[in-house]
From TrEMBL:
Superkingdom per UniProt: Eukaryota
PANTHER family cross-referenced by the UniProt entry: AMP-ACTIVATED PROTEIN KINASE, GAMMA REGULATORY SUBUNIT, OS01G0633400 PROTEIN
Pfam families: CBS
Protein name listed in UniProt: CBS domain-containing protein
SUPFAM superfamilies: CBS-domain pair (SSF54631)
InterPro entries reported in the protein's UniProt record: AMPK_gamma/SDS23_families (IPR050511), CBS_dom (IPR000644), CBS_dom_sf (IPR046342)
Bilayer-spanning residue ranges: none
Residue span(s) of domain CBS: 145-203, 320-378
Keywords annotated in UniProt: CBS domain, Repeat
UniProt keyword Repeat, yes or no: yes
Length: 406
C-alpha cells in the first residue's frame, strides 16, 4: 500500500525522491496547522456524545444498547480508583457494533444453533445461550474485538489523527477529548478527514497528489477484493466479512460483474428484520442486496440518535448508498474516489474494469495513508490504564498494538 506522498508512487530516481520529500514536508506543515476541532463531527454540542459500555457488561446488552441508540461505536469504560480516590482513565477502549454482531453470529453457529428459533428475534436468540449471554465485554479484548483508547485532544492537529488512522490499521474512529482523562466530546472518522482534505481542492499541495489516477498508486494493484457469488448464501458472506472486515463484493456467477456489496455497515439490518438472521443460510447474497436497497425508504423519525451522535449513526448515513456499491475505474483520480466515498459515507470503493468486473478495492484508510508522510514518528500511546486492564485477559500493548501473551 502506498504510504508516502504521491510523488513517490511511480519511482523516478533521486529527483522524484527529492520532490516526494518536499511534498511530504509541505503536507506535514499544512496539516500540522489544522486543529482537530476543524474536522466535521469532531466537536459536538452535547457535553458527552459518546455511548459508554462497561467492561462488566454483557455482549447482548451492549449490542442492544448500541442498536437502540443508533450508534455504530461506543467507548468502553471502567472505574478505577487510585490511592487518592480519583478516577483514572475511565475510557480504556472502543468497540464497534459490527464486531459484536459478527462475533455473536460466529459463536451462535458454533453452538449448532444455525438457523435459530423461528419465533425469536436476533437478541433473544443470543440470550438463550449462556455461552453468549454471559460473555462480558472485558473478555472480548482477548479476541482483539475492541481497540485501545487512542484519543486526540481538540487542539491536536489533523496530522496527528491521520497518523493514527494510517499507522494503526484496526482503528476506524478516533475519539476526541478536551483534556487527557476527560470525557469524549466528539469523534474523528475517516470520511470526515477526507471531507476536510477535499475542502482544500484547488490548492497545489492537494491537487498535485489527488489529481493522479488510481492506477498510479500501489494500493490499486495490491488490494485484492473479497467477493461472493450472488447465489451464495448470506451466511457465506457474513463469514468472509468477519475475517476481512472490508466490504464483500457480490458478483454474478455467469458474468463476474459486480451487482452489489455487503458491508459491516449493513449489519443493523439483521436486527431490524430478524428473518434475515434466521434465514441467513438459505437467503442468497443477491436477495440480501435487493432487500438492502429497499431500506433507503424506511423512516428514521423514531431514531433516538442525537446531533452529537450522528457521525456514528448506524442507519442514517447508509441511506445514501442503499444497495449500490461505490465503484471507481483505475483511470479515475484519487480525488474522484475521495468524493464518492465522502458522499456515500462508505469505507471502501471497488475498482472495476470497463465490463463491471472487480479488479481491486480502495479503502478510506488507503487514501488517508497517501497524505501521511512515512518519515514521521507515529509512536502514540494509549491510556495509561489500558495495559493494566488487559493484563487480566492475557494481553498487553506494545507500540500501539494489542498482543496476546503466549
Amino acid at each position: 500500500m502506498e504510504t508516502g506522498a504521491a510523488g513517490q508512487a511511480g519511482g523516478g530516481g533521486p529527483a522524484a525522491a527529492a520532490a516526494g520529500e518536499y511534498w511530504s514536508e509541505a503536507l506535514k506543515s499544512f496539516l500540522d496547522h489544522i486543529p482537530v476541532s476543524s474536522v466535521p463531527g469532531a466537536l459536538q454540542p452535547s457535553p458527552s456524545p459518546a455511548l459508554e459500555i462497561r467492561l462488566d457488561g454483557s455482549v447482548p446488552d451492549a449490542i442492544d444498547s448500541m442498536y437502540h441508540s443508533d450508534i455504530a461505536g461506543a467507548v468502553i469504560v471502567d472505574d478505577v480508583r487510585t490511592s487518592f480516590g480519583k478516577f483514572v482513565d475511565r475510557d480504556i477502549g472502543f468497540i464497534e457494533f459490527p464486531s459484536l454482531v459478527l462475533w455473536a453470529i460466529k459463536e451462535f453457529d458454533k453452538l449448532g444453533s444455525g438457523i435459530g428459533d423461528k419465533n425469536s428475534d436476533f437478541l433473544t436468540s443470543l440470550k438463550q445461550h449462556p455461552q453468549i449471554a454471559e460473555t462480558k465485554i472485558a473478555w472480548l479484548a482477548k479476541s482483539f474485538l475492541w481497540e485501545p483508547f487512542f484519543p486526540v485532544r481538540s487542539h491536536d492537529t489533523l496530522f496527528h489523527a491521520m497518523l493514527l488512522f494510517s499507522k494503526h490499521r484496526r482503528i476506524n474512529v478516533v475519539p476526541v477529548v478536551e483534556l487527557m482523562n476527560s470525557s469524549v466530546v466528539g469523534f474523528v472518522t475517516q470520511n470526515a478527514v477526507m471531507e476536510l482534505l477535499l475542502s482544500s481542492s484547488g490548492l497545489e499541495w492537494l491537487d498535485k497528489i489527488a489529481d493522479k489516477q488510481l492506477s498510479e498508486f500501489r494500493f490499486a494493484n495490491a488490494n485484492k477484493p473479497v467477493s461472493v457469488y450472488s447465489d451464495q448464501t448470506l451466511a457465506d458472506a457474513l463469514h468472509i466479512l468477519s475475517k476481512e472486515k472490508i466490504g464483500v463484493a457480490v458478483v454474478d456467477r455467469k458474468t463476474s460483474c459486480l451487482i452489489g456489496s455487503i458491508q459491516c455497515s449493513d449489519l443493523y439490518l439483521l436486527l431490524d428484520d430478524s428473518s434475515l438472521f434466521r434465514n441467513r443460510k438459505t437467503l442468497n447474497a443477491e436477495e440480501f442486496v435487493k432487500l438492502k436497497s429497499k431500506d433507503k425508504d424506511i423512516s428514521t423519525e423514531n431514531s433516538s440518535v442525537s446531533d452529537g451522535q450522528s457521525v456514528l449513526s448506524l442507519r442514517t448515513e447508509q441511506r445514501k448508498t442503499a444497495g449500490l456499491p461505490v465503484t471507481n475505474r483505475k483511470s479515475d483520480t484519487l480525488k474522484q474516489a475521495m468524493e464518492k466515498l465522502t458522499a456515500s459515507r462508505s469505507s471502501c470503493s471497488f475498482i472495476v474494469d470497463e465490463h463491471g468486473r472487480v479488479d481491486g478495492v480502495v479503502t478510506a484508510r488507503d487514501i488517508i495513508s497517501v497524505f501521511s508522510p512515512p518519515c514521521m514518528d507515529s509512536r502514540i500511546d494509549g491510556g495509561t490504564f489500558f495495559s493494566a486492564a488487559l493484563a487480566q485477559t492475557g494481553c498487553r500493548v506494545e507500540h500501539g498494538q494489542m498482543i496476546q501473551n503466549s
